[in-house]
Design goal:
This protein is α/β, with parallel strands linked by helices. The chain is 38% helix and 22% strand.
């Protein structure tokens, strides 16, 4: 039985319809794909993003903000979306497991991710959250929210950005490891986990969002996972993505792909963190990481789809 950490993007849960009903429907479709890992005999650990969800919740909080009912801060909104998405996944995965004749418990864990108070990310907000805006909407958005920083996000429109510090430790990793060892399917580190700074015995929430791929990589390392799989709408990794000479990678060693990371050849807001997180997992464990599309799960399991990043020793043997 292989322990596999699967990282899902928040956009795999939320489409254009932000209603709870639409998101639950999307989660149910996702669960149908994820159940294939368990059918294959693997122990599954699910992580997920929450960028669209936490951004939308912040808008709701801001719109209803009054002295009597003050808006919740970003870290608390992160916890709230962890809870709601975890609830949806618990029910969807449980239903799909029973449909497949598998009686296995599913459990969501509100997860806190420890970050450094002096992480340079706090001086350089870069993590997109919330909905996309067109260029024509920018002036109105800036007038309503002058404190926001907005950037163009991988050709898809403009989004608000917030600090995205690197995870140092997953506070609940020992409990998550026990859950995994008990054969339960955990849903952990929603949205990368709630970013907290450690001060003595206190964990203090911060105004930030942690990249869920880096958090998934950290969890995978801490619980001794055999494989990290990052599922994305873009599919596998390409050199020269979107250009006539684009090349999709099937298997690549960490030294080779690191050269392309260092040359900033991947999109900052989308593929770059996925490649960096996968490479970090491989470098620190020697195990494989895969980046591929959610709809290709069966073929990823069979080794027929996705980009597999391997240690340099394995890459040299393959050559």
């Amino acid at each position: 039985m292989a322990k596999i950490v699967v990282a899902l993007g928040g956009n795999a849960i939320l489409s254009k319809d932000a209603s709870a009903q639409a998101q639950m429907k999307a989660v149910k479709e996702t669960a149908k794909e994820l159940v294939n890992f368990i059918k294959n005999g693997d122990q599954l650990i699910i992580t997920h993003g929450n960028g669209p969800q936490v951004g939308n919740l912040l808008l709701q909080q801001s719109a209803a903000d009054t002295p009597e009912n003050p808006a919740m801060p970003l870290d608390t909104c992160g916890a709230m979306t962890q809870g709601s998405i975890g609830y949806w996944f618990q029910n969807a995965m449980r239903e799909e497991l029973l449909n497949a004749g598998i009686d296995k418990d599913v459990m969501a864990v509100v997860t806190q991710t420890i970050v450094a108070e002096d992480d340079p990310a706090f001086q350089n907000p870069s993590k997109p959250i919330g909905p996309f805006y067109t260029e024509s909407e920018l002036d109105d958005i800036k007038a309503i929210h002058p404190e926001w920083q907005l950037i163009e996000d991988a050709g898809r429109g403009y989004r608000r950005v917030v600090p995205s510090p690197k995870p140092l430790e997953i506070n609940e990793y020992r409990a998550i490891k026990m859950i995994v060892e008990a054969g339960i399917v955990p849903i952990v580190s929603g949205g990368g986990g709630i970013p907290v700074v450690k001060k003595g015995n206190q964990l203090i929430g911060t105004e930030a969002v942690i990249d869920k791929d880096f958090s998934a990589s950290k969890i995978a390392q801490l619980i001794d996972a055999d494989k990290l799989i990052i599922l994305t709408s873009a599919g596998g990794v390409f050199y020269n993505y979107g250009k006539p000479d684009a090349v999709e990678l099937k298997e690549v060693g960490i030294d080779e792909i690191q050269k392309h990371i260092d040359a900033n050849e991947f999109a900052k807001g989308s593929m770059m963190p996925k490649v960096e997180a996968a490479t970090d997992f491989v470098r620190n464990t020697g195990n494989h990481a895969v980046i591929g599309a959610l709809e290709d799960v069966k073929r990823i399991i069979a080794g027929e789809e996705g980009t597999t990043i391997v240690s340099e020793d394995i890459a040299m043997v393959a050559k």
